[in-house]
Amino acid sequence: MNGLKPSMETILFNKIFIESDLIDDSITKQILERLPKDSEKKVHLIDRYDEIFGKVKKPYLEKRKNLNLFIAKKKGSLVKEAPAAYGLGREKHFYFINSYNCIYECEYCYLQGFFSSPDIVTFINWNEIKEEIIKVANENHNCWFHAGEFSDSLALSHITGELSRFHQLFKDLPHAKLELRTKSINIKEALTLTPLDNVIFSFSISTEESCKEIDLKTPPLKHRLKAIKSLQERGHTVGLHLDPIIWTPDWSEEHQNLIHQISQEIDLTQISYLSLGVVRFTESVYHQFQKNYPESTIHQGEFKRSFDNKVRYPRALRQKMMLFLRDELTKKGVQKKIIYDCME
Predict the structure, then answer these.
(1) Residue pair 331/99 in contact by the 8 Å Cβ criterion
(2) How many CB atoms lie within 10 A of CB 243?
(3) pTM (2 decimals)?
(4) What single DSSP character describes residue 108?
(5) What stretches of 181-220 show up as alpha helix (H) in DSSP?
(6) Per-residue pLDDT tens digits for 271-288
(7) What are the DSSP E strand ranges found in the chain?
(8) CA distances from 240 to 95, 101, 154, 334 (A)
(9) Please, are residues 131 and 70 in contact by the beta-carbon 8 Å criterion?
(10) Which domains does the chain have, with CATH numbers?
(11) Widest CA span of the chain, in angstroms?
(12) Residue 195, burial from CB neighbour count under 10 angstroms (0-12, 13-18, 19+)
């Protein structure tokens, strides 16, 4: 499936677990209506999702043949402050928890060592999530909120119906910003929405080689760029993440080609912000990555424990790579002030 355009409409879940007090919820009904017609036969009512999800460890790579969906209510903290160096500027950054896990399979993904299961969980207690966002936004003027910390913001939005809810909420919160992080080309609904200055569609972009060999099951580079171009032409605000940057013997040439391809398709002078981040792992994720992808081209790079106990390339190499990309990007019209180093 490497490099092939995914068909979001044909995602098949083996089982659908629904918390029993949510079975009559309007969002639950909407999700079931948008799934394949035989999906109701796969429904299992449960008391709480966390009594099943992750209770028995399910290998990450089982997602290739056995992926379940949980429709649940998130309890506890719904909005959390993001770590330092997460975004651009000095404003406070937060992320809200609306789902767990992703349909894609990027070899470096931190989710493979974060949860005990690759199954998808979507939280539908939207009113509670919304109220918490409003509260935090009113306490922190000009702050940022990020969707997609534990999932992809757009990949399943045609099923969850979240995008229109996000859009309406931040239309009513002009003093706060929303970033929708994605690798998806699932933008059909986005193109019908009125552009808002404070709602940013941000795309993670990889070299053509990485899209084929490492970003498994994700849309090819050319399709991602076309999606970005369509959003720009519609008037939407767009951000880019060249993250993670991965070393190969031809890394400079590959990334020079990447930046050329980007500049040919989209207007880089109109990008809201652009982050650079070199591939990095927590110790537990690095262990899972080694186990899951022993033949990955990522292993070509030299890794060592870094200042924050993450596993990364040596500092000198990271700086060299990011400086090279900065120079290439500014040559193509990207303003220096909108480029930032992520998690450095």
Answers:
(1) no
(2) 20
(3) 0.93
(4) T
(5) 208-213
(6) 999 999 999 999 999 999
(7) 16-19, 43-46, 69-72, 79-81, 93-96, 99-100, 105-106, 120-123, 144-147, 177-182, 199-204, 215-216, 237-245, 274-278, 304-305, 311-312, 339-341
(8) 18, 21, 15, 11
(9) no
(10) 8-250 (3.40.50.12110)
(11) 56
(12) middle
Phi-psi region of 85 (alpha: psi -120 to 50; beta: other; left: phi over 0): left
Cβ-in-10-Å burial (0-12, 13-18, 19+) of 98 comes to buried
Q: pLDDT (tens digit, 9 = 90+) per residue, 101-160?
A: 999 999 999 999 999 999 999 999 999 999 999 999 999 989 999 997 899 999 999 999
Residue 337: burial class (beta carbons within 10 Å; 0-12, 13-18, 19+): exposed
More confident call, 210 vs 90: 210
Measured distance CA(322)–CA(246) in Å, rounded: 11
Quick count: other Cβ atoms within 10 Å of Cβ 297?
16
**Amino acid residing at 13:** F
DSSP strands (E only) in 185-335: 199-204, 215-216, 237-245, 274-278, 304-305, 311-312
As a whole number of Å, the end-to-end CA separation of the chain is 33
- What does residue 63 show for φ and ψ, rounded to 5 degrees? -60, -20
CB 297 within 8 A of CB 112: no
Q: Is the peptide bond before 118 cis (omega within 30 degrees of 0)?
A: no
The 10 Å CB-count burial string (b at 16+, else e) for 84-93 is: eebbbeeebb
CB 291 within 8 A of CB 301: no
User: With contact defined as beta carbons under 8 Å apart, do 230 and 187 qualify?
Assistant: yes
Rounded CA-CA distance 125/216 in Å is 31
3-state secondary structure of 219: coil
Torsion sign (Cα): 113, 119, 124, 125: negative
The three-class DSSP label of residue 100 is: strand
Per-residue pLDDT reduced to its tens digit, 52-101: 998 989 999 999 999 999 999 999 999 999 887 677 778 899 999 999 99
Measure the CA angle with vertex 333, ends 230 and 251; round to 5°. Answer: 85
